[in-house]
Amino acid sequence: MTVPEKDRPELRTGDEDTPQAPGGSGRTLREAFEEARVEPDDFAQE
């Protein structure tokens, strides 16, 4: 037997409690890599 949609308990994903800033962070990918100290040599293919 199935439960009607209106009688089902509401499920939470956990994302509701995390505040999100509207829009993007405003920094470029280059700036993010610089902040993370990622260098081009980190991607060198052998």
Automatic annotation (TrEMBL):
Region annotated Disordered, chain positions: 1-46
Basic and acidic residues bias locations: 1-15, 28-40
Name assigned to this protein: Uncharacterized protein
